[in-house]
Design goal:
By secondary structure, the protein is mainly alpha-helical. It contains nine helices and no strands.
Amino acid sequence: MTRTSTCIYHFSVLSWYIFLNFYISQKGEDQQKSKIFPNDGQWKYLTFLNLFLQAIFYGVACLEDVLKRTEGKKDIKFVTAFRDLLFTTLAFPISAVSYKDVQFVFLSFWIIFLYDRELVYPKAIDDIFPGWLNHAMHTAILPFSLVEIILRPHCYPLKTKGLTLFAAVSLAYISRVLWIYSETGTWVYPVFAKLSPVGLAAFFLLSYILGVSIYLLGEKLNHWKWGDMMQQRKKRK
């Protein structure tokens, strides 16, 4: 894909995420939304935080596309490095993981949704958010991230650095979930109320392991697609 096509793609996806964030913020009456999303509102859910994260990443990607055309590659190394760090450690893993702190959207959300949707996405939400938005939030995000891997190479950090950053973000979100429960007595996701303390700890641990697996998968896909080219670049340097 040419630079122009890449720039157009990034701008199109950025526009999509800006639209989603704006649509969600404006959709529904305030009183109705407050009943569906009490205690910190919609921002306690990783799904909505992830939409905001994706908008930030594609905004940085668009900025890098523009600067690369105007400033040259050598003058925007910081922007490129930040773009790669943001994508490899957060945007890609969480796009595949965005149901509770670290879970597959494709697998965990839809399996639990089909089993008992009230545990993860109560039917009352349909009065505010239409069905297509549910898919936009939980289904379409991962394909965009996979296209991004195929579209251009990303320099992965050292595993210790990347996984430490991912672990820190995961721990921060888990801590927030536990804090909300301690303050309100209500779990962010009703499914947590069905688990014992040991079961909840096991759930968090399994979620983190799945998240790490997604991180490593992204690294493998990046190497599979761009490994030879990145090796040639290193030899030239």
